[in-house]
Amino acid sequence: MSFLSPDTPLAQALRELLPADAAWPESAEVRLELLPSSRQVVRFSAAGGEVAAVGKFFSGYPPATEPDRSLDREFHNYLWAEALGLTQGAGLIPRLLGRHPQTRLGLVLAAVPGPDLDQVQARACRHGDHEQLRRRLEQLAELLAVFHARLPGEQPSSPEPALGYFDKLQRQLQDLGLLSAAEAQVFQEERAAWAARLPLLPDRPVLVHGDATPTNFLFPDGRAVALDLERLRLGDRLWDLSWVAGELKHAWGLRTGNLEGAEPAIGHFFATYFRALPAEAPLKRRIFALNPFYMALAELRIARNGYLPWEHRRALVAEAGRCLAGGRSLVL
User: Fold this and answer.
1) pLDDT single digits (tens) 170-203
2) Which of 17, 187, 299, 312 is the most buried (most CB within 10 A)?
3) Largest CA distance in the chain
């Protein structure tokens, strides 16, 4: 925790960006709390007061590195989401307050209180608080249903991004020593089988969050709020739905050693999503038939993380293999 004098350029920039009704005395020091992130992210508040805003910083401006370009995209995606009505009412995303590149502030958002999905998953796995997890998954499913209904595309979604991502993940996992040559060959055979299967069940692209990991969803006041919109785009809805399912598998496997323990939560999440749309039979059939492939992508993605135990990473790779093989047995 550190403090910023009220007469510094950064403190003055924050006062300019904050809404007029923000409880932030001009003479107050600004309290800075560095948040866990791959980039510099800071929670700002008036000393002794409540949290007012969260800022993400450029390393340099104009953006010259990929992280800085990603932050620039995220700012414009928040503007896009606002134009699509995602801030109306209680709001499905944080309120965008603006940015101030002169002080390297690439994005400033109104702070959102509440636990994130990772905290809720941890309580369910370690303390048996399954009812709270069920409620939060219902709120998340309803939020994603709103996203997915907001801007349907006209042309069929393409399987190529998913197949390309599969290739990227396989290369990375082989380089990390998580896939043997024999396992890589099996994965290539699965990839070929799924390349033929995916186009058989087309869907229109929808507005997807694109990075549906647990820390990107907060739950204030009985609702879900989506953060980190740098990957907001038109795409296959399974990038969101199967990511949540894969993250639930990961949470149970890491915290309890039992990957299968996540199945009731996954089933409840999908059931709520189908009610929230509401989903017709062909869409349900497509989601159930193709979820194993996208869920395997989510598990392989998580397995890359070096901070996880090696045994758990190998278990995720094995589970992805089971998803790929078992999913192909489902009737289209």
Assistant:
1) 999 999 999 999 999 999 999 999 999 999 999 9
2) 299
3) 67
- pLDDT confidence bin for 47, thresholds 50/70/90: low
What sign results for the dihedral spanned by CA atoms 19, 21, 26, 30? negative
Distance between CA atoms of residues 33 and 51, nearest Å? 10
In CATH terms, the superfamily for domain 117-327 is: Aminoglycoside phosphotransferase (APH), C-terminal lobe (3.90.1200.10)
How would you write the chain as a 3-class SS string? CEEECCCCHHHHHHHHHCCCCCCCCCCCCEEEEECCCCCCEEEEEECCCCEEEEEEECCCCCCCCHHHHHHHHHHHHHHHHHHCCCCCCCCCCCCEEEEEHHHCEEEEEECCCCCEHHHHHHHHHHHCCHHHHHHHHHHHHHHHHHHHHHCCCCCCCCCHHHHHHHHHHHHHHHHCCCCCHHHHHHHHHHHHHHHHHHHHCCCCCEEECCCCCHHHEECCCCCCEECCCCCCEEECCHHHHHHHHHHHHHHHHHHHCCHHHHHHHHHHHHHHHHHHCCCCHHHHHHHHHHHHHHHHHHHHHHHCCCCCCHHHHHHHHHHHHHHHHHHCCCCC
pLDDT in tens, 286-306: 999 999 999 999 999 999 999
Its pTM stands at: 0.94
146 half-sphere exposure, CB direction, 13 A CA radius: 18
